[in-house]
């Protein structure tokens, strides 16, 4: 821990424009506390996001940042990590960005197991576009856009991450920022792909999520390295247990080193 730096040192002068009570404020706070605790130099950190309320995060972190296109945060983060393995790369986004249009990237990021951290702020709704159901929305949730509910079974992020090969799987809660900070610290320190789902209430479009404060609680068991045991716990849970669920030190994928080539030599190959 570097006591010379403070969480505020990693914040920009841009004021977050999230709605009052949004859980994403707590994730921003936990991330700046993490960077301060680890004492990471700003020029050695990169935060990458896609599109959505939570994807505004890079603008509020004083480090390298990339606000990409919808669903492509992990693709950009993986490319950056491949090109600059010395950087601490953190991808961030929401359930719509990460599990819908970005779902395929999520699967293969878990499978590839590159050394980066993915934080998904899940509020079970598309907040920025005014309240459509997201992949994790309950099938009977009623809104103006789905007056009879979607009727679709929710996407199961932790189960998908486990079956796709992620070596670090955790769930945090915005209402418990201390535990969330510890999870992000452990995720960054884990060598390989770290997936952290954050229960991040949206009081504007899902006011009933204020009840999460009473429903969220720690997992009853310590984290396991057995994927079968982890699967049993995940599938028997109601989605409100928090903490580190699964950690397995799987070998991370690293791109091979190839000599640099100039454009002229590549063009010449196509002329043969």
Identify the notable features of this structure and list them briefly.
272 residues, 8-stranded mixed sheet, 9 helices, globular
Compact overview of the structure:
The protein has 272 residues and is α/β, with parallel strands linked by helices. The protein contains 9 helices and 8 strands.
Overview of this structure, please?
This protein is of the alpha/beta class. It has nine helices and eight strands. Helix 1 crosses helix 6, helix 3 crosses helix 4 and helix 5 packs antiparallel against helix 8. The radius of gyration is 19 Å and the shape is globular.
Low-confidence stretches: none
Q: What is the chain-wise order of helices and strands?
A: HEEHEHHEHEHEHEHEH
Number of DSSP-assigned strands: 8
Give the CA-based shape.
globular
Structure classification: alpha/beta
SSE topology:
Blueprint: H1 24-38, E1 45-49, E2 64-67, H2 73-83, E3 88-94, H3 95-101, H4 103-112, E4 117-122, H5 157-164, E5 168-173, H6 177-189, E6 194-199, H7 212-215, E7 217-218, H8 227-235, E8 241-247, H9 263-271
Parallel strand pairs: 1-2, 1-3, 3-4, 4-6, 5-6, 7-8
Antiparallel strand pairs: 5-8
Helix pairs in contact: 1-6, 3-4, 4-5, 5-8
């Amino acid at each position: 821990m570097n006591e010379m730096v403070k969480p505020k040192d990693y914040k920009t002068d841009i004021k977050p424009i999230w709605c009052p009570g949004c859980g994403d404020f707590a994730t921003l706070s936990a991330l700046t506390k993490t960077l301060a605790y680890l004492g990471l130099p700003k020029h050695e950190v990169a935060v990458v996001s896609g599109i959505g309320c939570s994807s505004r995060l890079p603008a509020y972190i004083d480090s390298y940042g990339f606000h990409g296109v919808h669903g492509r945060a992990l693709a950009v983060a993986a490319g950056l990590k491949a090109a600059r393995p010395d950087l601490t790369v953190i991808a961030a986004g929401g359930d719509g960005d990460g599990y819908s249009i970005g779902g395929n990237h999520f699967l293969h990021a878990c499978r590839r197991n590159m050394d980066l951290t993915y934080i998904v702020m899940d509020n079970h709704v598309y907040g920025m576009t005014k309240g459509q159901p997201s992949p994790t929305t309950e099938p009977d949730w009623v809104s103006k856009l789905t007056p009879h509910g979607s009727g679709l079974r929710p996407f199961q992020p932790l189960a998908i991450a486990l079956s796709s090969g992620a070596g670090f799987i955790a769930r945090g809660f915005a209402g418990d920022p201390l535990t969330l900070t510890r999870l992000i610290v452990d995720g960054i320190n884990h060598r390989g792909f770290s997936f952290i789902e954050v229960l991040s209430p949206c009081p504007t479009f899902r006011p009933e999520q204020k009840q999460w404060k009473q429903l969220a609680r720690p997992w009853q068991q310590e984290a396991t390295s057995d994927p079968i045991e982890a699967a049993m716990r995940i599938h028997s849970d109601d989605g409100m247990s928090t903490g580190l669920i699964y950690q397995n030190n799987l070998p991370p994928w690293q791109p091979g080193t190839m000599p640099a080539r100039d454009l002229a030599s590549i063009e010449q190959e196509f002329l043969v």
